[in-house]
Amino acid sequence: MRDFVGALDQGTSSTRFIVFDHEGNEVARHQVEHDQILPRPGWVEHDPVQILERAHTVIRAALSNARLSAGDLAAIGLTNQRETTVVWDRKTGRPYLNAIVWQDTRNDRVVARLAETAGGELVRRRTGLPPATYFSAGKLQWILENSGTVRRAAQDGTASFGTVDSWLVWNLTGGTNGGKHVTDVTNASRTMLMDLSTLAWDDELLALFGVPAEMLPEIWPSSAHFGEVAIEGRGRGSVPLTAALGDQHAAMLGQVCLRPGEAKNTYGTGNFLLLNTGAEITTSKCGLLSTVCYQVEGAAPVYALEGSIAVTGAAVQWLRDQLGVIASAPESEALAAGVEDTGGVYFVPAFSGLFAPYWRSDARGAIVGLTRASSKAHLARATLEAICYQTRDVLLAMEQDLGVHLSELKVDGGITANKLCMQMQADILGLPVSKPVVAETTALGAAYAAGLAVGYWSGEDDLRRNWREAQRWEPGWDEDRRQTAYAGWQKAVARAMEWVEPGSGQ
């Protein structure tokens, strides 16, 4: 009997496979990090082959650790880091070059040229996205302009493009032996190539970026039958792959934000605050993105407003890996708790420029307010506060766009394990912060989408019954302290802007 659903969660830092039961409880898990390749300032790459190998590894290990087999799984759902761009040879299955990660800014010249023409307005109108280095089309254009091998392969019809979901689905469903070259509406909506209203690739946008249509995957609903995944090792067999969607969209399902007005914030490498806008495409006037939230096969798409923040958890990683201030991410909480406040220190982690609501590719990381009394504890606390201030930036923009005020914020993701950071978040927002029992809602949402496709869960009511609050943080700051602290953050953000020349490639 197939008692469980699996979720392959391929993120920016690691790949994990989690098995869930009908109540949404975690039954098994295995997780492995992959390499962060940084060839030059502003360049961030991943090895697609390594990511694929990690995917196979975590599936086998999670099932083996729990003494489960393929026959125990009703379905598998896939969720992935978005915008990261992969180009491979459909005959050999080999990537032509490393994946260009969503954080990468090498295509800033492409975006700078676009912003100076009517093409920038075309992108905004058709896709709901501002021209930015973040999205896939500019990365793909950079590849086509700088790699003669890829350019010739694209002209010959042998080069395939996709975000990480496409790369994994193609390989997991057969690869060179009949693999499905597809993507889902959520990932397609992050490319700057899909018309948000028709959910189809747009010929004008393809021409604008110089992308041959033959490179592109088919666009499918998020919850559909993508094919069969062969499971190796103990209890080998095949399991239907019935969902694929971007990580932040999966988290909306995991948090059961299925009705207009419901919102969540996911804390990972970056922060991503999404609000369900239902069947309507809402155009932001305050620097937010219009995006597809999800689509179930046979149903109309559901849309969302999104505030994307590039660097939050990655700032904690930077303290660990580049500065050596901490030996592990959890140490940031204890270190930051050693001081009552930041001592006036602000850290703006604009390593890849600033995303929502600013969209400033000329910004770079800045630490301001340092004195002789400043310590590594103050820097650690400023790093955690930066996560919370950036969330406030986005939430204020969302409230201005929609004219609504949230009564609480649902949160999920790895940083929610940091209780001090979550208390700071409540203090800085002036809102209660609510964390569910299953904090890994990205994987849970992928499992939900897959399970709905095969009838494992019957519908929305089934999913809502599974949501349970694990912890809640109430704001403790008064309004004067909140406003004064936020004013300091805004001054720090202003200092980080105009640091590099647009088109400099840094």
Structural features, described:
The chain is α+β, with helices and mostly antiparallel strands and 506 residues long. The chain is built from 16 helices and 23 strands. α9 crosses α14. The N and C termini lie far apart (54 Å). The model has no long low-confidence stretch (mean pLDDT 92).
Major sheet strand order: 17-18-16-15-21-22-23
Helix content: 25-40%
E-strand count:
23
Looking at the structure, what is the overall shape?
globular
Low-confidence residue ranges: none
Radius of gyration: 22 Å
**Structural class computed from helices and strand pairing:** alpha+beta
Give the end-to-end Cα distance, rounded to a whole number of Å.
Answer: 54 Å
Question: Beta-strand level of the residues, as a percent range?
Answer: 15-25%
Instruction: Outline the biggest β-sheet.
Output: 7 strands, mixed
Mean of the pLDDT scores?
A: 92
Number of helices: 16
